[in-house]
Amino acid sequence: xxxxxxxxxxxxxxxxxxxxxxQKSGLDENNINKIAPNGFGYKTSKDVSLSLQLLTNNNQPVxxxxxxxxxxxxxxxGASIFKGVTDANGNLKATLNVNASSTQLIIDPSYIGLMHNxxxxxxxxxxTAVIGGKSGYSGDIVADAINNMPGxxxxxxxxxxxxxxxxxxxxxxxPYTATADAVVNNSTYALAxxxxxxxxxxxxxxxxxxxxxxxxxxxxxxxxxNVHPEYLTSSAVSNINVTATADVWITYVSEGASYQSTLAxxxxxxxxxxxxxxxxxxxxxxxxxxxxxxxxxxxxxxGGLRSGDxxxxxxxxxxxxxxxxxxxxxxxxxxxxxAAQGFYSDSQLNPESTSALRKHSIVLYDDVHKLxxxxxxxxxxxxxxxxxxxxxxxxxxxxxxxxxSANPIAGISNSGIPPIDKAGDSDGDGVLDxxxxxxxxxxxxxxxxxPSPTTFAQLAFEDNWPAKGDYDMNDLVVNYRYTFIANAQxxxxxxxxxxxxxxxxxxxxNGFGLQLPFDASTxxxxxxxxxxxxxxxxxxxxVEAGQSKAVIIPFDNHEALLRNPDxxxxxxxxxxxxxxxxxxxxxxVTFNSPVPSSGLSISSFNPFVISNMRRGYxxxxxxxxxxxxxxxxxxxxxxxxxxxxxxxxxxxxxxxPWALSFSDxxxxxxxxxxxxTDAYPHFADWAASNGTSFLDWYNNLTSGYRVSxxxxxx
Length: 714
What we know:
Helices cover 6% and strands 28% of the residues.
């Protein structure tokens, strides 16, 4: 409330309060200048229903996997808009709130053996998907693009060179001599996928127990330096040392990289490793490099491999060492770029300047499944500039994960090879310790934030309801972030709301409340509310007294968080005044019993302003209901036309709202007294279209979307 009070003062307040209720059911709808059709809800975000299932390669459910969901704009670790844990059937269901213009989301199971950072299309406000299983993926999943760099293909277009002492040969397994005959090219697997024709007919089954071991040993995005530093010691063996004649196979498990790299192997007499990568044996170099996986990427991730796909390397005699090389992002879509940067299991051959950083592979012995697990790091660990796209190594050593098996298994020495981590779950909640934010507390498993741990969502209010204001939407602008702590059943144990004020462009002293979508009795305690004006009554738990649903009051007067030093009105809405920083109200809500995350979907939260500390004057988003404390007699008085002729609650006869909600802070509110349509020309177009056009009216920075001179920008 502001400009109207320059003239009316407190008499005007009394007039609004005492005006008689007008019956608007007889409005002449044809003679009203409406900004939007009746019933428009002014939603800049939408709910998306997620139904996800995770499966092993033999269609068994993957339980206890922590799944993160991201917007396509930010997939940085910690920026997830939702986290959940798959149940015993591998299922995860959730309701997500995203920008209304969103067409895709990123789903990351963060579980080795499954696709990572998977794009999924939003269809009819829903995502239904399977990640894993015999088919690799299904539903709304969008497969990654395949490398297409034909100009970089070299080495296999016209066969290969002959073996010799003065050069290193790069070959496919005999009898294949070129990509054209070594790679599948049919209606199921196009040549561009790089799937080898020499795979074993029957793939391996990779069961849940093996996957749990793999994930405990090489957890996604977690540095091995921190999780298992013993894997990186100078004494840890990184190759296969054959001690008795044995057949050896390599089985693909998964890849966690954005590159489409090639995996190959080479051999030498044990104890006599090569001293350089080229030049042949006469120069102390590698004699022959044989391709295992031309494109070591999975189905849906730019490749054609499925978890469990298996290649027989051959039969090897005692005294043979089998070593590996990863050719970084070398698959071109039609062949292999042999000039690509290579990383070797023999660390002395790698490009980094220190021995600690030269290690690029880890091998672990699994005495339960009788195999040797390998993990590769596919980026230069010292010089990001040497990597495509300048990627920085995360040192998780799971960019390509495979294992070696043998007949007999005793034909491979396990001397110097660390044992695999057998999947600790200290608190027994079903979530591996490495993915559990609270590994010793079975009541808590993970944390997620909305909209992210480092950003805020925003609410903008006009405070003169039921009368119209100037629609500069800056009477109270509140930034907020919610932090949820959940258990392994995807139930919320606690939530914290962090609230600060971006602007208070009003003469009113406004409070702010939040109605949660469950009974007040659900809440055990509320702490951190900032109250200075003594007009709110609280129950012993800290929720507002006299409410059937749980209502918290982050602040009862905006001056508890933000005020001008000279006590003048209009904070952060006039360029002539200094910009002030708000304090934060961090409100912690603890529940008597964990509540389902579906019951805490962001769209079901009901924020509101308490106008000028008058408890009965609540201002909500369009379409939301008032709380039990609101004065219901105010509806359809003044300019309010709530529920008249199909209108939403808290909209005017011209269908203007008194509040707007944004999933980020990209809405820069107008200057004092500037109508929102004069700052954002397409706001009216968006409203008139019933929200189908100009969904980006507030966050599009191209010409014609903003009038910068009318927007507060300090």
